[in-house]
Structures are given as structure tokens and as C-alpha cells.
């Protein structure tokens, strides 16, 4: 994935100057740990499935970025060349300090997800999920720089997950539809 990460660095450089430096992001003052806690997950789960985090109030305050940054480097093509699998975009997001995407399943679009994540600092942002088999809550902390994660979304076995950040974090989602 080194070639993919190199191209992503060029994208990061271009919009870091265009967007991050000039954008005034004032997050709502939520307690991220509360929003992304197991207790809050259980409250949400009592109401059934939640396909998208922003389907309920105060459950998502990340910023959506313009995919044109990725079109310019043919990001999907680079990933396809690297993995041999053609995918669709499922999101391009910026998580400034105190941003989050609350618990949800993405069950409305089943298939494999692949998320490329960049974090400004290690261990200050994370991907959290509930293991669909054991129901254990697992927090996977981001390292500084680029990394990627893969997981499957299925109606028959919901994959509850969320994201929180106390640093600048970028994520690019790709999906392989079932």
C-alpha cells in the first residue's frame, strides 16, 4: 500500500492548506466518551438497527470532504491496482479534535468496507466496534500517519461501530457491494 499512501500524502498536503488551515471548526461540546460508550450503544440498540449515525440527533459531528481531491489521483484505481478489487466510495471525512461519528451499522449497504485513515498523532483517535459474535466492545487506536482497516457489513450479523478523535483525523471509505 506504499504507493497508495504516497498519493494520499499529496492529497493531504493539498487540502490541508486549502481546508484545514482556513476552516473554523467549532464542535458541539459533546462528551465523546459518553457518546461512544458501551452504555450509549446499548441504548441505541434498544431501538433496533441504525444504518447511519446521523439518522439520530447529536450522533455525528464530523465534516464531509469533497471527493474531487480523490478523483484527481484516481484513488479508487490505485486501490484496485493494489488489491485487484474494484470498489465504490463510501465516504471522505475530516474529524477535527472532538469530532465523532456515533454508533451505527451501515446495514443499508451490505458488503466489505475498507477505510484508509490518517491521524496527526498516535493514540488520540480510534475506531471502536462491537464484535458481532462475542458482543465485546473493542477500541482500535489510530497510529500517527496512514493505516487501513477492513470489515464486513451484513444485515444478518450487524457490525456496530463508531469513531472518535482528539486530533486531526481523515478517513476515506471504500465499499465492495455484496
Helix content: 10-25%
CATH superfamily: Nucleoplasmin core domain
CATH class: Mainly Beta
What is the first-to-last residue Cα distance? Answer: 24 Å
Q: Look at the structure and give the mean pLDDT.
A: 88
What structural category characterises the helix and strand content? alpha+beta
What is the ordering of alpha helices and beta strands? HHHEHHEEEEEEEE
Strand % is: 25-35%
Query: How many helices in DSSP terms?
Result: 5
Give the biggest sheet.
5 strands, antiparallel
CATH architecture, by name, is Sandwich
Strand order of the largest sheet: 1-2-9-4-7
The count of strands amounts to 9
Low-confidence stretches: none
Rounded radius of gyration (Å): 16 Å
The number of domains is: 1
CATH topology: Jelly Rolls
Shape: globular
Summarize the structure.
The chain has 178 residues and is an alpha+beta fold. Helix content is 25%, strand content 33%.
Structural write-up:
There is one protein chain. The protein is 25% helix and 33% strand. It contains five helices and nine strands. The chain has helices spanning 2-20, 32-35, 38-45, 68-71, 75-83, and strands spanning 63-64, 88-95, 100-104, 111-119, 125-130, 137-141, 145-153, 161-165, 169-177. Strands 1-2-9-4-7 form a five-stranded antiparallel sheet, with no helix packed on it. Strands 3-8-5-6 form a four-stranded antiparallel sheet. The protein is globular. The relative contact order is 0.22. The mean pLDDT is 88.
Amino acid at each position: 500500500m506504499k504507493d497508495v499512501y504516497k498519493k494520499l500524502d499529496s492529497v493531504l498536503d493539498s487540502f490541508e492548506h486549502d481546508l484545514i488551515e482556513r476552516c473554523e471548526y467549532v464542535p458541539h461540546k459533546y462528551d465523546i466518551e459518553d457518546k461512544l460508550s458501551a452504555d450509549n450503544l446499548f441504548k441505541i440498540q434498544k431501538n433496533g438497527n441504525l444504518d447511519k449515525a446521523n439518522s439520530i440527533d447529536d450522533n455525528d459531528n464530523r465534516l464531509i470532504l469533497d471527493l474531487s481531491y480523490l478523483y484527481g489521483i484516481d484513488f479508487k484505481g490505485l486501490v484496485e491496482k493494489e488489491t485487484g478489487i474494484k470498489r465504490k466510495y463510501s465516504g471522505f471525512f475530516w474529524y477535527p479534535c472532538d469530532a465523532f461519528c456515533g454508533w451505527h451499522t451501515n446495514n443499508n449497504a451490505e458488503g466489505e468496507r475498507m477505510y484508509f485513515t490518517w491521524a496527526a498523532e498516535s493514540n488520540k483517535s480510534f475506531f471502536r466496534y462491537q464484535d458481532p459474535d462475542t458482543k465485546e466492545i473493542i477500541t482500535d487506536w489510530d497510529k500517527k500517519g496512514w493505516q487501513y482497516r477492513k470489515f464486513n457489513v451484513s444485515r444478518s450479523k450487524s457490525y456496530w461501530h463508531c469513531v472518535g478523535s482528539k486530533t486531526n483525523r481523515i478517513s476515506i471509505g471504500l465499499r465492495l457491494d455484496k
